[in-house]
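User: Design a sequence. Structure:
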């Protein structure tokens, strides 16, 4: 017989939480992601007119998870709903009923309708158990690959992080450190438009998708007060030859944009920049870095590069409607 007493111990509340509380809960979750952060909700409100709805998931009186869902009304009738990489869990190994109640709540709150356009990308590992969980709750899987990336644990000592580098990454890093490159750190976005123009050109030439310049610009706006944007440039003399853009979200960070010139490739500027990014994030007490996605089929070179840094590779369960 099912134990309904445990289900009754699960409570989900919507929009009962302050910005400060949300930030603190994101910090407690550890492996947070940019898409569940408060600045992302503010940036997407301006760029896509989608409003954040903030859920807290409690079990036996304590908050154990949080989830941000984005909504938009169109012409007073149609509705768009997006759940990107949630929920975030503050505790591990919770009873199955907690996860079941949450996903049933989402399905009940946003039932399938002809005038409702839903897209759910759960922050769940791609396992048969998780696929079954979502199917039982009434979700239909979209035939796409799940998001894959690499978590890098920055709480490790510098010596351990360096030892975990693959030889095909460590050797280029050592070479880059002997090339006389200068590191420039920009937390105010002085060079953001410069980087975004170069990145847009790269996207066109290499036919890959990435965040829109407008979204990134508004992310900068809503992270500026806490210096939660890091734009690092590698200079050869006075000439920038490579750059990376990273956004912090409490105890986590996400690599979002990168650019390398031909000279930068020759001088291993990206190895230089990623390593210095890791050291800078450690100074800021950031414990986890999401390396921003891997795709062995369509971006084999980038995937090999990121795998060389070490870390924990993961693949999410995929997209649902």
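Assistant: Done.
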């Amino acid at each position: 017989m099912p134990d309904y007493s445990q289900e009754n111990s699960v409570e989900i509340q919507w929009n009962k939480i302050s910005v400060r509380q949300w930030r603190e809960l994101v910090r407690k979750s550890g492996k947070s992601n940019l898409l569940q952060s408060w600045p992302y909700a503010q940036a997407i409100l301006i760029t896509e007119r989608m409003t954040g709805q903030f859920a807290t998931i409690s079990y036996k009186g304590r908050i154990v998870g949080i989830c941000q869902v984005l909504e938009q009304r169109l012409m007073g009738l149609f509705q768009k709903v997006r759940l990107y990489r949630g929920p975030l869990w503050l505790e591990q190994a919770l009873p199955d009923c907690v996860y079941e109640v949450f996903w049933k709540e989402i399905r009940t709150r946003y039932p399938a309708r002809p005038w409702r356009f839903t897209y759910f990308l759960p922050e769940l590992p791609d396992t048969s158990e998780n696929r079954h969980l979502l199917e039982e709750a009434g979700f239909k899987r979209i035939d796409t690959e799940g998001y894959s990336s690499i978590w890098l644990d920055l709480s490790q000592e510098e010596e351990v992080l360096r030892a975990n580098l693959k030889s095909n990454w460590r050797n280029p890093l050592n070479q880059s450190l002997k090339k006389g490159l200068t590191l420039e750190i920009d937390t105010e976005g002085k060079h953001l438009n410069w980087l975004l123009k170069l990145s847009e050109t790269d996207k066109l030439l290499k036919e890959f998708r990435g965040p829109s310049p407008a979204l990134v610009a508004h992310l900068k706006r809503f992270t500026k007060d806490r210096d939660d944007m890091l734009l690092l440039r590698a200079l050869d003399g006075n000439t920038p030859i490579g750059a990376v853009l990273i956004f912090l979200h409490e105890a986590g960070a996400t690599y979002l944009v990168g650019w390398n010139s031909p000279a930068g490739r020759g001088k291993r500027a990206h190895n230089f920049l990623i390593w210095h990014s890791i050291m800078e994030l450690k100074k800021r007490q950031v414990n986890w870095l999401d390396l921003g996605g891997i795709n062995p089929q369509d971006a084999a070179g980038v995937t090999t590069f990121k795998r060389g840094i070490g870390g924990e590779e993961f693949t999410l369960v995929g997209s649902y409607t």
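The first strand starts at residue 10 and ends at 14. The two ends are 31 Å apart (CA to CA).
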